[in-house]
């Protein structure tokens, strides 16, 4: 089922066993990456065999960490549509513009991909109670997979989280605790409780497997573009698992012999109230400094400091990519435009990718014949007070 072999630190290279529960690197505390025997997978696995498989992310189970199919928690996650954005493309003069619509995932966001794999693997390794600090979509996704497996979920959310996010977690059976302050305060509380009660924490990149779920977006793009990756990917960036995961997927795909060396230029979009990654990218820094006083309506982008900062910056640089900053007003206006022109009720984070594209077009950083993918990372339904209506 899985060709998983071991874990490897993304910064110092230390190797750890993958058959026991792991968090971050024991030496430098940075994220651990799952490694697979890709040479063996390449010999045994033909990409044409995918045609007969179920249209979910489990179609790539060889490069996912779960070895017991009975521990694979399934809600129909992944294999989201790659939609040609015909009307937006005509308006912008871009005939090859696409939207990868992640709002169709279970619980309405691409967080389902990461939490599906993290919870399945934690369950397989014997975990019974999990905890997450979340400003929204991650908590709902975790609560859903935990409920389906019959485990116990604890969620720490900022007290000002929009009501739909909280109700969703409670309906899915999670123990929800509201914390005064930001997501960073929730993180501290979650960490404390985890130690106190022996719960397993599934915070972004604090365990190796959410990344593995998110990387399937890269496999899907390759497959949906018939193994010719697009020229530009515009991605709304918070903790960065999607960006880092896709970049990892492209390397794995080349090792599998399924794609060549062409890579998309990766663009990280953040809001002007919290933009540590574009700031570090333009300063040519290897790590990002924490953003003071982080604020934006796009909760998924409100991550002042990310443990995977250097991995995002590496992907941006190696791909000749870019970092773009948009205002809340611009991303909300773009959210409305994406929704009304393409029939996708986008989330504010998805809108941010369109706002960024308009900036890149004006700067002539993208050209008309390029194949460009915008990521709509979730549904607009959970942010009832954000829209300028
Ligand atoms: C979490 C989230 C993001 C940011 O994703 P990362 O991969 O962690 O950078 C973007 N959009 C939405 C809707 C999110 O929930």
Taken as a percent bin, the fraction of beta residues is 15-25%
Q: What best-fitting shape do the alpha-carbon axes yield?
A: globular
Helix count? 12
The CATH topology of the domain at 82-109 and 210-386 corresponds to Rossmann fold
End-to-end separation: 49 Å
What binds here, in terms of ligands, is: pyridoxal-5'-phosphate
Q: How are strands sequenced across the largest beta sheet?
A: 4-5-13-10-11-12
CATH architecture group name of the domain at 82-109 and 210-386: 3-Layer(aba) Sandwich
Report what the structure shows.
The chain is about 35% helix and about 15% strand. It is α/β, with parallel strands linked by helices. It has a domain at about 80-110 and about 210-385: Rossmann fold, CATH 3.40.50. It has a six-stranded mixed sheet with strand order 4-5-13-10-11-12, sandwiched between helices. Strands 8-7-6-9 form a four-stranded parallel sheet, with helices on both faces. The chain has a three-stranded antiparallel sheet with strand order 2-1-3, with no helix packed on it. Helix 3 (about 110-125) packs parallel to helix 4, helix 4 packs parallel to helix 5 and helix 7 packs across helix 8 (about 240-255). The model has no long low-confidence stretch (mean pLDDT about 95). The site of pyridoxal-5'-phosphate has 16 residues, from helix 8.
């Amino acid at each position: 089922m899985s060709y998983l072999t071991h874990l490897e630190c993304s910064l110092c290279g230390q190797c750890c066993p993958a058959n026991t529960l792991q968090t971050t690197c024991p030496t430098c505390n940075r994220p651990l990456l799952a490694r697979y025997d890709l040479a063996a997978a390449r010999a045994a696995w033909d990409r044409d065999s995918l045609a007969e498989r179920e249209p979910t992310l489990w179609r790539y189970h060889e490069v996912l960490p779960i070895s017991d199919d009975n521990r694979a928690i399934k809600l129909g996650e992944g294999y989201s549509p790659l939609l040609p954005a015909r009307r937006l493309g005509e308006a912008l003069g871009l005939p090859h513009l696409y939207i990868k619509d992640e709002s169709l995932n279970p619980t309405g966001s691409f967080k389902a991909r990461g939490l599906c794999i993290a919870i399945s693997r934690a369950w397989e390794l014997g975990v019974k109670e999990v905890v997450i600090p979340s400003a929204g979509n991650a908590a709902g996704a975790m609560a859903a997979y935990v409920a389906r497996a019959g485990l116990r979920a604890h969620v720490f959310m900022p007290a000002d989280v929009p009501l739909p996010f909280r109700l969703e977690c409670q309906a899915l059976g999670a123990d929800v605790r509201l914390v005064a302050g930001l997501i960073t305060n929730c993180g501290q509380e979650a960490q404390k409780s985890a130690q106190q009660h022996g719960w397993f924490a599934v915070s972004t990149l604090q365990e190796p497997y959410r990344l593995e779920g998110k990387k399937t977006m890269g496999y899907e793009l390759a497959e949906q573009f018939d193994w010719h990756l697009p020229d530009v990917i515009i991605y709304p960036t918070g903790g960065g698992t999607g960006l880092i995961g896709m970049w990892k997927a492209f390397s794995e795909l080349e090792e599998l012999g399924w794609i060549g060396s062409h890579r998309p230029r990766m663009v990280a979009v953040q809001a002007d109230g919290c933009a540590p990654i574009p700031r570090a990218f333009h300063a040519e820094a290897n790590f990002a400094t924490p953003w003071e006083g982080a604020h934006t309506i796009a909760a998924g982008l409100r991550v002042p400091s990310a443990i995977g900062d250097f991995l995002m910056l590496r992907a941006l640089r190696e791909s000749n990519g870019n970092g773009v900053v948009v205002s809340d007003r611009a991303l909300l206006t773009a959210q409305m435009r994406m929704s009304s022109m393409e029939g996708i009720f986008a989330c504010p984070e998805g809108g941010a990718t369109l706002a960024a594209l308009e900036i890149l077009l004006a700067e002539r950083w993208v050209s008309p014949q390029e194949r460009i993918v915008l990521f709509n990372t979730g549904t607009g339904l959970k942010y009832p007070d954000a829209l300028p209506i």
